Amino acid sequence: MITLERIVRELRDYDGEEIKIMEVCGTHTSSIFKNGIRSLISPKIRLISGPGCPVCVTPSVYVDKLVDIAGQERHCVLTFGDMMKVKGSRMSLTEAVAAGARVRVLYSPLDAVKIALEDKNTQYVFAAVGFETTTPVYGVLLDEITKREIHNLKLLTSLKIMVPALSYVCENEKNIDAFLAPGHVSVIIGCDVYKELAQKYKKPFVVAGFEGEHILAALYEILCQVKNGRHEMRNLYPNAVTEKGNLTAQSVIQKYFELKDDFWRGIGKIEKSALKLKPEYSKFDAGSSFDEFEEKIPAGCRCRDVILGRINPPECPLFSGACTPLNAVGPCMVSTEGVCGIWYKNRGGKG
After folding, report:
1. DSSP state of 323
2. How many Å apart are CA 92 and CA 140, to the nearest integer?
3. CB-based contacts of 240: which residues, under 8 Å, 6+ apart?
4. 3-state secondary structure 173-220
């Protein structure tokens, strides 16, 4: 039996070539800090973050569209709080509200149904942002809109899927040795999807839970694979993640959405990486398709390098100086799931 003490000892004492491991999920990043994981492992094992924050990779043109809608007469944008401070090319939703736009912050998409029914003279647009984890909820919302024949509630979508983004990273960032796969997303899509990635790119993909011992076990599994020249998918979170995932949630997604190319802030265009409403449901779409555009990165901001795992946030010259959660220059500092925001909150700690 492999004990936790043995796992920590072997991770701490590793003295081989540097192993660069990308943890994709923001919750994993937070847990790494909470449990002081970096202080328990060898400096030869380098943990870096990836494109696991949906708000952070939402392009500025999407925010611009929300701002425009919120400023129209008898229109109101409904959103979660973490979208409020994300800047578009001109301003954020918070700044738009200060200029007279109508925006309401909700805690559940289904709250939008009640709001729309209570005020039928206003056109409401829900900012549907997320990965596979939240997309099924928007499907349930569409079920309610259809069933109740609500005509004044639409969605503006920026719904991304994870596997194409991981493929992009594998294709373009050759020095990443292994992946700690996203736990929440894996609950929906299952772990089998990582087998092809592991085989194609010859990198371990390990699914893990969010407790400290779960992450340590996953890092140990990755260490063993790298040392032995293996590149396999391993599911260390079987109580929540199955091989095929949540088929009910997947069916809801497949009912309303189809795969399309889309832009990821800080990365660019990734083929078949987004979920857009199918043509038969276009009447519920507030204009989610955008022409190609060139994303303008603020001067000095290195969010692209952070999202792609090239650097950790403190290596950005703006981090914790010009860029803070109260004055976010780049999108990675805005959300509680954003890697820069997590590093700022835990600055001074070893993770």
Report:
1. B
2. 28
3. 183, 187, 209
4. CCCCCEEEECHHHHHHHCCCHHHHHHHHHCCCEEECCCCHHHHHHHHH
Rounded-to-integer distance, Cα 145 and Cα 207, Å? 35
What is the three-class DSSP state of 20?
strand
At 150-179, the pLDDT tens digits run 999 999 999 999 999 999 999 999 899 999
Q: How far does the chain reach from its first CA to its final CA, in angstroms?
A: 28
- Rounded Cα distance between 12 and 16, Å, is 11
| CB 192 within 8 Å of CB 243 | yes
Measured distance CA(341)–CA(346) in Å, rounded: 9
Cβ-contact 28, 210 below 8 angstroms: yes
pTM over 0.70: yes
DSSP state of 313: G
Sheet of 205-207, strand order: 45-49, 19-23, 178-181, 205-207, 233-235
Helices 212-227 and 4-13 cross at an angle (nearest 10°) of 50
Tokens of 217: 């076990």
- Residue appearing with tokens 């590093």: 343
**Beta carbons of 101 and 128 less than 8 angstroms apart:** no
C-beta atoms surrounding 340 within 10 Å: 33
In this structure, which amino acid lies at residue 289? Answer: S
- Measure the CA–CA gap between 299 and 9, rounded to whole angstroms: 43
Q: Write out pLDDT tens, residues 202-223.
A: 999 999 999 999 999 999 999 9
Beta strands 153-160; 268-277: pairing state = antiparallel
